[in-house]
Amino acid sequence: MMLRRSILISAVLILLLSVLSRVDASYLYTEEIGKGTSYLISHQNPDGGWGGAPSGASTVYDTCFAIWTICDNISYPATPIQNAKNYLLNQRNASGVWSSVITTAMATMTLSRVFDETNSTTIEWILSAQLDEGTWSGHTSEGCALIATWLMLSGVPSNDTHIAKSVNYIISQQQPDYLWGGVGAAVPGRIITALGLACLNATMNSTVLEPAINAMLKFQRLNGAFYSSSPGTTDIYATMWAISSLMTCGMQVKTNITIMQKVDNATAWVITQQGAGGGFIDPFNGYQEAPGTTCQGVISLAVAGGQPLPYGVIPENLALLWFLPVTLVIIALAHVRRKGEA
Asked: pLDDT digits over 223-247, tens only?
């Protein structure tokens, strides 16, 4: 009788923990995510890439974002993604890299993560271009955070000396208000830096990310949106990056439910920015639906729903949630074995 009860309790706990730990974006914002990804597929340029604005020229940046968005959220037709891959490969120069360090890092990570094609030559080229202080020429903390994150996602170990140098550089650039880039800098960049730092799995404590989260929240308006450089300028990009940053940073420092309430408010506002065609409205392109805003809109909804960042990593404390059910199974099996031997 005791044996049955122990197994039953273990089974219930396993089921409960499994349900609680598996928060899949497919259960949340399914309709909005589906419409957004369908919009992207229907607005792919003939060359296989995407631009930020409607009918805009393709760029490596926007194409990578579109690939992540489509591949992470729906069952997609193979042809558009293959065409996008061909576009990326065709943008390399004679040396086999892209136009800059940051686009090379972005494209290399995309090819590695989505197509399982790691290019050690381009990775070595990026690493060799790193400056002694840990960043790359022309890039402040924002660019450094993105390049280092994409390198790690391309296969560079998180404990590699190049990654460590970048983390140290980024932390050294944190401003007195606990964000990056200075008080007059645009909010999206200041938030992106915190996101990149969290994705790098640096040692985060109350002196780094927790005050950064509180600083981010000061840029949120009553309607849930975040503003760019002044309280009167609502910025859809700032809002989208803030959602990803708050979710990632929040999981790193284990903040309370207040963070989720703020994310929910921001997400509710983002949904109001989706147009009838499925794309998200871009205020900088005449308030029309655009591929650039659509990518980030869909990603922010997926992240808010619990899906890991396509350009980030799963925080270690989430892995713990899967460890607990497994532990319970082992305990239950051991209990059965002891009873059998008795």
From this structure: 999 887 655 566 788 888 888 888 8
